[in-house]
Amino acid sequence: LLGTMQGLREASVQRPARAALGAALASPGRSKRGAAILALLMGVGVWLGLQAFPPEILLADLRTGTGRWQTHTLADGSRLSLGSDTAVALHDSAQERGIELLRGEILLDVAKDPNRPLVVTTADGRMRALGTRLLVRRDAQGTELTMLESRVAASRAGEGRMVTVQAGQRLRLTPAGMGAPQAVEPGSIEEAWQRRRLVVQDRPLPEVLDELARHRPGLMRFDRAALAGIRVSAVLPLDDTGRALQLLQTSFPQLRVQTLSPYLLWVGVAAP
């Protein structure tokens, strides 16, 4: 790469940038410094890439990009729908069918097989079903299980205690513990999934922004502590995050959204 760049310096037209490059590479000492800087930049790039796409994500059996949804029919006949920025690994054996949710959200229609239960696992817990319909979402804070039909036995990672989650209930699994099942409306939740909508009821704004960021290309940054006191109840479009942010600004005029570039956005609170 350095040799190619040096060749640019020797071209007939000496633009200022090329002349500066030639000066930087003119002596062996500077060449070594240039190589060191290039190696550092490449190292930073690799590190940033691994933060966004860890090896386990890159090696996932199924995954979607930001703003993409996909549906797959598995070998056993189960239907697996992946939401935006989702990755799963498949671990089938003679004893059970396994789906590991690495990140993102899935909607699962489980084909019945009494001899081989289907088990969904995340870093936070394990959910065992024979035949059912469920939503599982994993984020930085934990795993959320929403039952649409039938029931599932769930347990935290490393624990033997099982909790049965019925249709119309939601359970949260986190490193700190397992909450009690909460009542939800399955029909509205499934409709929101199908229409790419985020339905929130009295949730902190940072949690809502976390979900919007998962459906938006680039980076969305915000001051979590400054926004923690704002509670949101809304229906927001996940396939148009720009519109979702406009709706939030309409509801909360103190919000300020700054677009620093097409792939970098800042959400804050206006100074009093």
Can you tell me about this structure?
The chain has 272 residues and is of the alpha+beta class. Helices cover 29% and strands 37% of the residues. It has eight helices and 19 strands. It has helices at 2-9, 16-24, 28-52, 55-58, 186-194, 205-214, 224-227, 241-251, and strands spanning 62-63, 70-73, 79-82, 87-90, 97-109, 118-121, 125-129, 133-138, 143-149, 151-156, 163-166, 169-174, 177-178, 182-183, 197-204, 219-222, 231-237, 255-261, 264-269. Strands 1, 2, 3, 4, 5, 6, 7, 8, 9, 10, 11, 12, 13 and 14 form a 14-stranded mixed beta sheet that branches. The longest helix has 25 residues, at 28-52. The model is unreliable at 8-14 and 46-51 (pLDDT under 50).
Q: How do the helices and strands follow one another from N- to C-terminus?
A: HHHHEEEEEEEEEEEEEEHEHEHEHEE
Helix content: 25-40%
Radius of gyration: 24 Å
**Amount of beta strand:** 35-45%
Mean pLDDT: 84
Helical/strand content category: alpha+beta
Tell me the number of strands: 19
Count of DSSP-assigned helices: 8
Principal-axes geometry comes out as globular
User: What summary fits the major beta sheet?
Assistant: 14 strands, mixed
Distance between the termini: 52 Å
User: Could you list the spans in which at least 5 consecutive residues all have pLDDT below 50?
Assistant: 8-14, 46-51
Summary keywords:
14-stranded mixed sheet, alpha+beta, three-stranded mixed sheet, globular, 19 strands, 272 residues, 37% strand
